[in-house]
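Dear V.,

Thank you for sending over the compound details. I've combined the ligand you provided, flavin-adenine dinucleotide, with the protein sequence from our construct and run the structure prediction for the complex. I'm sharing the raw inputs here so there's no ambiguity about protonation or stereochemistry in the SMILES, which I know was a concern on your side last time.
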Amino acid sequence: MAEAVDVLVIGGGVMGSSAAYHLARDDRAGSILVVERDPTYARSSTALSAGGIRQQFTLAENIRLSQASLAFYRTIGEHLAVDGEAPAIGLNAQGYLFLAEAQGAAKLAANVAFQQHHGVPVEALSPAALAARFPGLSTTGIALGAFGREDGWMDPYSVLQAFRRKARALGARYTQDQVVALERQGRRVQAVRLASGQVIAPGTVVNAAGAWAPEIAQLIGMALPVVPVRRMAFHFLTADRTLGALPLVIDADGLWFRPEGAGFIAGKAIAGEPPGYNFAVDYDYFETTIWPLLARRVPAFATLRLQRGWAGLYDLNTRDANMILGPWDGEVDNFIVVCGFSGHGLQHAPAVGRAVAELILDGRFTTLDLSALGFSRFARGALPREENVA
Ligand SMILES: Cc1cc2nc3c(=O)[nH]c(=O)nc-3n(C[C@H](O)[C@H](O)[C@H](O)COP(=O)(O)OP(=O)(O)OC[C@H]3O[C@@H](n4cnc5c(N)ncnc54)[C@H](O)[C@@H]3O)c2cc1C
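Below is the predicted structure of the protein with flavin-adenine dinucleotide bound, written out as structure tokens.
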């Protein structure tokens, strides 16, 4: 016998849990079941994220998602407190700094103007201004910086647990199981089969399986332009304690670093990294590529002490690096996809989860209009590419 559930969410990471929370707080949602195969979240992108949040995007929709989500994170206790206890997510607004060399300076200046037009508190800084504001940072080779003073980072695991805890407190159920098959009849998913043998008859299915979302979509023949791609992060200590006031820095070559506890975390995407479920940590890459770049930008990093590295997955949208949100238009009506975040999902989770709930409960977006981010855009030629993706 299939169990009837109003909304079945596949994947209980930050997206699935934000969607579950935004649904559960509305009486119209009915029963909500989140199927998560690994409640330790050992390989979930959320738990392996760097936690950055910034408003400096090149697509207006992404800026609006950040603005709405930052407002939510700043007031998280008003939304996600359980039994009067507000979650601690470690939101740290030390700022977010993009750097450009001469050839990228005009583009960075144009981005700043675009973002300011959309209400983002971001300012362009000359090398002299950068050196004055961020002692310890070398401006060698740098022509311009763009500093978002409201932005920063938070603790991803705490964010996930905060959404999950509140969703459950409001009545959403979580089950440890794996979705192995979807049965489609006409324009509906009729049944969802779990590894345990349980069968669910869903009202609506939300595919929030992150880097595994393309596999889930493929179960009903939907081809998403999303691939799993490894991204590594490394934690190190440095003797210079004054550096802890630095913002999150995205260097001109894609190197990123930010303070973390008594040290820093850093990373840089490998050019041409092949898609795949690769969780191996390449310490040679840190030694030969990342460390020299770190020491060039912050000379005190020449004597850093590496602690550990880890690898997680981006759900990379190969077409335009933007998320994909909504049903499979014209094909399957009760299957909502929410994936393709290409490295900026954690920061957008509050506004995206709210948008998922709107689609299901109202049949349309009622706050932010995210209709440009639907799957049907690929048939129309996709969106302008989001350029600020590391
Ligand atoms: C190294 C790194 C750094 C990052 N830095 C940032 C950053 O600074 N800022 C930012 O905003 N974002 C960042 N991201 C991206 C961000 O982490 C993701 O966009 C976001 O966490 C995606 O959340 P999700 O819930 O969609 O995916 P996930 O957290 O991966 O959750 C998906 C869940 O689905 C489950 N699942 C999969 N298949 C099945 C199945 N068949 N049945 C049941 N369950 C299933 C998985 O177990 C998983 O828990 C980073 C990512 C990485 C890897």
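A first observation: The chain has a mean pLDDT of 96.

Warm regards,
I. M.
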